[in-house]
Each structure stands twice: as structure tokens, then as C-alpha cells.
């Protein structure tokens, strides 16, 4: 049911804040949004056709709308975030941070916290720091917390009643909270607080302390201890300097967002500034397919998802404005337990830092979505729009026939997934030239078919190959293509659809591409589709078609070569593939077999087969 069929229902929606959910015919939630006025916001979708291919795909898939009324915009904001997190609708902006690098987790939820390596941030009440680039820096930092502060590394349940400490205490890597007489809970709490300062990037005081200790150890000729403190000092300095710094006392504590949007998605860079210095950088990336037409939409999703598991700074700087800033500030203030402001700097150091974050986002975008990937996605998006497909054609199967005057007719099928050729899925076919025996029946053996029953024309060959391919796919349960590309015009396309209808797969979409004119033929249009010469969609289809042609021609040449080698010997009674191969290997060629004596042949294939070979060539030479 298209969205316009819901016009009467949409007109009756309340003019109150709340959340709306678009649902498809399968009952799946495909988009969740919030609104200050549900009626006005939802009715705006009636005029949204043509904004982008993704908007059109969403509108074509909508079957019904559900709404939840709230008392305020902020409540709608929170509810929207929870529903997106729970249902993960595919048209919403879903951001992912970089899980390739580790985090450090200070388990403040335990009475005697530890530091652990974590690959993702969870809402558990613990303190997280990272991600760490390079990854070894995380382990060095964890080791530093053991050596400098004495944070424990064991998995024991600490009660303070242990009789004696373990070896970690003896080598001065643990304060031994397991023995209450050695370390009380309050003493251990001081070490945890210092460790937290280290993880939060407040390292100046720690650096001075380590430098003083190193000098004192050196003066007293405790050189091993001084070397350990020197290494610890270098590690802390590396932690402090690992990100590009913009040092200014006026920057204070703030989080700065940079954004880069493109055809493949978007990248967010978040610089966390503490004490006027960038101490952390977090990268978030969007998945292709979400509706993200404006910077405001992506920034809104980034704020909600980034601070779902983090405490916001007192000030957040954005590169562009967002809707309902007041509601967002209210929600962030609730999360932080203090006033949080959301600002768009226009000049000075703050604006320079936003521009720096944006430049980093642009660099990350080029790394994450390289130009080739972006071009592939753009071509598939254009193809979906021009062909009115329900979704992006991520898998395209292409068929081509190769023959010379009906001789050794073969076919090829190549597969393109997300714009890249998938050679492991390529298939080649010898065209049997047999008429269909009915749907889902095993194809008869072509070797036993009479020659007069074979149909050498391209239309019948295309019908046979498509029938055989998707009969096998249907029996195995997939994979089914999003689009079938036929190398040919209306005749080949009609033959392909005949095969699909015979096995009950007429719902699959097929198109034909004619050579020379490069016109696209579809079943639903009487006139062909003409794409511009440099249209990315046409270039992609040409690349797939040319690969199918190359694969078919290569197989056809091999088939002709095998035919020429085996034609004479295969007609001899008693000479099968094994004996034919032995004869050609021993005598080098067909002429060599013809010149061989009966005794020479007998040593290779036996007396009876040698007699049959001699008799055969004697008859053919008359």
C-alpha cells in the first residue's frame, strides 16, 4: 500500500509531540522518527517523492503508520532513540564506532576495580577510555596502571581476608587489597582515582610526579627503578601527545564534532577536549542505505547514539545546526547531571577546532569509502531508480551465449555483488539444445538426445540456460539475484522470462542490454531505456556484460579445441576418454596415431582397441 493511500489516516493524527513508526507489509519497522507535531511531520511525507532514491524506496515500501504520543519533545527524543536501538530500522541512521581498536575499561562497578581490555563500549557503569591507536598502546597503558598505581590484575573476589599477598605485590605491581592489613579500601580508592585521571587524559600532574621520582631514583643509584620510571614517563607522554593537539586555555572541556557526507554514507569525527587539549578522538561511520539527506539528521543521530554510553562535556560544538536544540540540551543535561550547551562556533579557536575535526572526517571518509566503492554504490542507486526496483540491486546475474553457426554453443553466467565481480560464483554451460521437460524435472542427458531435436538459435539457448540455472537455485533455496542481466534485446529477454515463468520465478526482474546502441529493454516498457554514455549505471552494466562475454568466449574456444582433438578418435568403437588421452599423449597428435603400427598401438591400448583403430582409419582412407 503506497503512502498516499494513508492520506485520510494521516489527516486524523494528533497535533502533539511524539514518535511515528513506518511499517512495511511484512510488519517490520523500517523507519522511526520524532515530531513536535505528529500530524504535520507525518503528512510532509506525502510530498517527499523525488527527494532521493532512498526516500522513494521508503515511500514505496510503507504499508501503515504507528504513532506514540508523548508529553514533550524531549520525551519523544528519548523514545525515538530507544526504539531505533531496539528495532534497528534499515532506513534510520545507524552509526558504528571503530571496533578495530581496543578500549580500556576501569571496572568501577566493582568494589576493587581492575583495568581490562574491551572491544566495545557497554552501558555497565564502568569507565571506558579509547579507542587506542595503535592497539599496543592500550596494553602499555594497562601495564602502566599496574606498575605506577598498583591496580590489581587478578580475577579474585576481594574480601581482604587473604593470609598473604601474591607475587604481584612482591614485584610492586599491586597494592594487595586482598590483605586488609596491607591496603585498605580507601587506599585502593586513591589509586583508582589516579588511574581514572590517567585514562581521562589529565596527565600533566602525573608526568611531573614520574619525572621527580625518576630523578630521585637516579640520584640514589637505583638505576633499574629509574629506567622503569623513565619508560612509564615516555608512555604517559605518548598518551598525552598521540592525537593532534590544539592547545588553548580558552577551549576548556568540550566535545567537537566534524562531519563528512557523501554518496556512500557519512563519517563523524569527535574530538574530546579536556583542559584545552584534544586528548581523544572517536570515529563513527554510517551504513549505506539510511535516509541521510541533511547534515542535521546525521548530527542528531550522532549526538543521541554517541552519548547513549558516554557522559557529555559541558559544551558541544557542531559544524551545523540541528532541530530542537533545546530538547537536545535538556536531554544531555540530564545525562551529565550539569548544564550542557550545544553551539555552532562561527570564529576563533573553537571554529578552527570544528574545521580540524571536519578535515579529519573527510580523510576518514576517503579511507572508509574509497572512490571505487562510492562509484559502485552511486551506480547501483541510479540503476535502482531508473528501473523502479524495490531495493538496490546488490546481486546481479548476467548471461551470455557464445556460438559459431550453432556449433559448440555454450553460455556463461557471471555474478556482480555490490559492484564487484564475484568469480567464485561464475558458471558455464554447454547448451544441450533440448526442449523443456516441464518445471522442476531433471534435465535429460544431452549425450543421448538425437541431433535433430537440438535447437541451435540464441533465443532457445538463452531459455535453456536460464531454466537450468534457476531450476537449480530453486531446488537449493538460493541465492536469488536482485537483477538478471541478459546480453541481448527483446528476443533474448522474452526467452529468459519464459524460463522464469515455467519454474514459478516470474517475480525476478530481468533486463536486456543490446550491443552497439546500448539500450536497456524491460518487460514492462514498450520503449527501451536510454542512459547517457557516461552514466555510472550504464558503465556498470557494460562492465558486467563484457565480463560475461569474455567468460563465454573463453569457454567456447576451449570447447572448439576439445572438439577438434576428440572428433576422430571418439568415433572409434572401444576408444573412450582414457584410451584417447593415452593415444594422444603417446603419439603426440591425431596424425601420429594414424601413422602408428598395430604393435605400437597395442602396447598403449591393447590388441582389440588397436585393431579397431587400424580398421577405422583404413575405412576412412578409402
Helix-strand layout with pairing:
Blueprint: H1 7-11, E1 18-23, E2 29-35, H2 38-43, H3 53-61, E3 64-69, H4 73-87, E4 95-97, E5 103-106, E6 115-118, E7 127-129, H5 136-149, H6 167-170, H7 185-199, H8 204-219, H9 223-241, E8 254-262, E9 265-274, E10 277-286, H10 295-306, E11 315-317, H11 325-336, E12 341-343, H12 348-368, H13 371-387, E13 395-404, E14 407-417, E15 420-421, E16 427-430, H14 458-476, E17 483-487, H15 490-502, E18 510-513, E19 520-521, H16 536-566, H17 577-587, H18 590-595, H19 598-605, H20 607-620
Parallel strand pairs: 8-11, 11-12, 13-17, 17-18
Antiparallel strand pairs: 1-2, 1-3, 4-10, 5-6, 5-7, 8-9, 9-10, 13-14, 14-15, 14-16, 18-19
Helix pairs in contact: 4-11, 5-9, 8-9, 13-16, 14-15, 19-20
Give me the number of helical elements. 20
Largest sheet: 7 strands, mixed
Determine and state the CATH class of the largest domain: Alpha Beta
- Radius of gyration equals 36 Å
Helix content: 40-55%
The H-level CATH homologous superfamily of the largest domain, spelled out, is: UvrC, RNAse H endonuclease domain
Low-confidence stretches: 243-249, 434-456
User: By helix and strand content, what is the structural category?
Assistant: alpha+beta
- The termini sit apart by 77 Å
Number of domains: 5
Q: How would you state the average pLDDT, rounded? A: 80
CATH architecture annotation name of the largest domain: 2-Layer Sandwich
Total count of strands: 19
How is the CATH topology of the largest domain named? Nucleotidyltransferase, domain 5
Could you say which overall geometry the principal axes of the C-alpha atoms support? flat
β-strand percent reads: 15-25%
Amino acid at each position: 500500500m503506497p503512502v498516499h493511500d494513508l492520506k485520510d489516516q494521516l489527516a486524523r493524527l494528533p497535533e502533539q509531540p511524539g514518535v511515528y513508526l513506518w511499517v512495511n507489509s511484512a510488519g517490520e519497522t523500517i523507519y522511526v522518527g520524532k515530531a513536535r507535531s505528529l500530524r504535520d511531520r507525518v503528512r510532509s511525507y506525502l510530498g517527499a517523492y523525488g527527494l532521493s532514491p532512498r526516500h522513494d524506496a521508503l515511500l514505496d515500501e510503507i504499508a501503515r503508520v504507528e504513532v506514540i504520543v508523548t508529553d514533550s519533545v524531549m520525551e519523544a527524543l528519548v523514545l525515538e532513540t530507544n526504539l531505533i536501538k531496539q528495532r534497528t530500522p534499515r532506513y534510520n541512521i545507524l552509526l558504528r564506532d571503530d571496533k578495530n581498536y581496543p578500549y580500556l575499561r576501569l571496572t568501577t562497578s566493582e568494589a576493587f576495580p581492575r583495568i581490562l581490555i574491551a572491544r566495545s563500549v557497554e552501558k555497565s557503569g564502568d569507565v571506558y577510555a579509547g579507542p587506542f591507536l595503535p592497539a599496543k598502546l592500550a596494553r602499555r597503558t594497562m601495564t602502566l596502571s599496574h606498575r605506577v598505581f598498583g591496580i590489581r590484575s587478578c580475577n579474585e573476589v576481594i574480601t581482604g581476608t587473604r593470609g598473604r599477598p601474591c607475587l604481584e605485590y612482591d614485584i610492586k605491581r599491586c597494592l594487595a587489597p586482598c590483605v586488609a592489613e596491607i591496603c585498605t579500601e580507601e587506599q585502593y580508592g586513591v589509586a583508582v582515582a589516579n588511574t581514572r585521571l590517567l585514562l581521562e587524559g589529565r596527565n600533566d600532574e602525573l608526568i611531573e610526579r614520574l619525572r621527580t621520582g625518576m630523578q630521585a631514583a637516579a640520584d640514589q643509584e637505583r638505576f633499574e627503578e629509574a629506567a622503569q620510571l623513565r619508560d612509564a614517563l615516555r608512555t604517559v607522554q605518548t598518551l598525552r601527545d598521540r592525537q593532534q593537539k590544539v592547545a588553548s586555555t580558552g577551549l576548556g572541556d568540550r566535545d567537537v564534532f566534524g562531519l563528512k557526507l557523501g554518496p556512500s554514507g557519512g563519517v563523524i569525527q569527535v574530538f574530546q577536549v579536556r583542559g584545552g587539549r584534544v586528548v581523544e578522538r572517536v570515529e563513527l561511520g554510517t551504513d549505506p542505505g539510511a535516509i541521510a539527506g541533511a547534515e542535521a539528521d546525521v548530527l542528531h543521530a550522532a549526538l543521541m547514539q554517541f552519548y547513549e554510553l558516554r557522559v557529555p562535556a559541558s559544551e558541544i560544538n557542531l559544524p551545523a545546526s540541528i532541530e530542537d536544540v533545546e530538547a537536545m540540551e535538556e536531554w544531555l543535561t540530564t545525562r551529565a547531571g550539569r548544564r550542557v550547551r550545544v553551539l555552532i562556533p562561527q570564529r576563533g579557536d573553537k571554529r578552527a577546532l570544528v574545521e580540524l575535526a571536519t578535515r579529519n572526517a573527510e580523510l576518514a571518509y576517503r579511507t572508509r569509502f574509497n572512490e571505487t566503492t562510492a562509484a559502485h554504490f552511486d551506480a547501483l542507486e541510479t540503476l535502482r531508480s531508473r528501473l523502479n526496483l524495490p531495493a538496490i540491486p546488490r546481486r546481479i546475474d548476467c548471461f551470455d551465449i557464445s556460438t559459431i553457426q550453432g556449433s559448440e554453443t555454450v553460455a556463461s553466467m557471471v555474478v556482480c555483488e555490490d559492484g564487484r565481480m564475484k568469480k567464485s560464483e561464475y558458471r558455464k554451460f554447454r547448451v544441450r539444445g533440448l526442449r523443456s521437460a516441464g518445471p522442476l524435472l531433471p534435465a535429460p542427458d544431452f549425450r543421448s538426445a538425437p541431433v535433430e531435436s537440438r535447437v541451435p538459435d540464441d533465443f532457445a539457448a538463452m531459455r535453456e540456460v536460464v531454466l537450468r540455472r534457476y531450476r537449480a537455485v530453486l531446488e537449493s533455496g538460493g541465492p536469488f539475484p536482485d537483477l538478471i542481466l541478459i546480453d541481448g534485446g527483446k528476443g533474448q529477454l522474452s526467452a529468459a522470462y519464459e524460463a522464469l515463468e515455467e519454474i514459478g520465478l516470474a517475480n525476478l526482474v530481468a533486463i536486456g542490454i543490446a550491443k552497439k546502441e546500448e539500450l536497456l529493454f524491460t518487460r514492462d516498457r514498450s520503449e527501451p531505456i536510454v542512459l547517457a554514455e557516461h552514466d555510472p549505471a550504464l558503465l556498470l552494466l557494460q562492465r558486467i556484460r563484457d565480463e560475461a562475454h569474455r567468460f563465454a568466449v573463453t569457454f567456447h574456444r576451449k570447447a572448439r579445441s576439445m572438439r577438434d582433438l576428440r572428433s576422430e578418435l571418439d568415433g572409434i568403437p572401444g576408444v573412450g576418454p582414457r584410451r584417447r588421452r593415452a593415444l594422444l599423449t603417446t603419439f603426440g597428435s591425431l596424425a601420429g596415431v594414424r601413422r602408428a603400427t598395430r604393435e605400437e598401438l597395442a602396447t598403449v591400448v591393447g590388441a582389440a582397441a588397436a585393431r579397431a583403430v587400424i580398421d577405422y582409419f583404413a575405412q576412412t582412407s578409402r
